[in-house]
Amino acid sequence: MIIIADYGAGNLGSLTSALLELDLDFQVSAVPEDVALADRLIIPGVGAFRPGMESLRKSGLDEAILNHHKSGKPIVGICLGMHLMATKGTEGGETHGLGILPGKVERLEASKSHLVPHLGWEKISELDWGHDYQPYVYFAHSYYFSPESSSSMKLSFFAWDGYHLPAIVKKENATAFQFHPEKSGQDGLILLRNALET
After folding, report:
1. CATH code: domain of residue 63
2. Which is catalytic among the residues 68, 79, 91, 118?
3. What is the pLDDT of residue 4?
4. By residue range, what is the domain housing residue 27?
């Protein structure tokens, strides 16, 4: 059973529709005991880092998520959910995250050619999941994950004003998406299924 952790900041409509299209069994829950029983876990998210972490801690979902990760079962973070898996974030003031992915969440730098928030469709580099194409996916964010060290992670990137920033991060049983796979058509569905089955 897939559990979607509901901490009050999730884009649950699009995500549940995507899982239904993939014909996967899932449940949305804000109960830590349900997370403990999950075979696979998704941390969705739309919003800001500090309130997101405060909500996880208040509900007890933070410890349940960490225990799930330690069990070695697949865990997937999407957008804010990805950010909360980092060591710390700067949105709303520096705040400690779950620490699953070593690194820091920082604000995107705007320029004349790159506006913040970053909204829209972009091609990303492939993560070596056996596909010979560059997925085309949908982004909606103002902050990004900056890895502490890329040596222990597999990374896929998107281009941002001359830089390559993480679009997908994979470390052991954890996969995190900066974009929204549930809003990214067939490419997104393929990537989401692969993450849940890894």
Report:
1. 3.40.50.880
2. 79
3. 97
4. 2-197
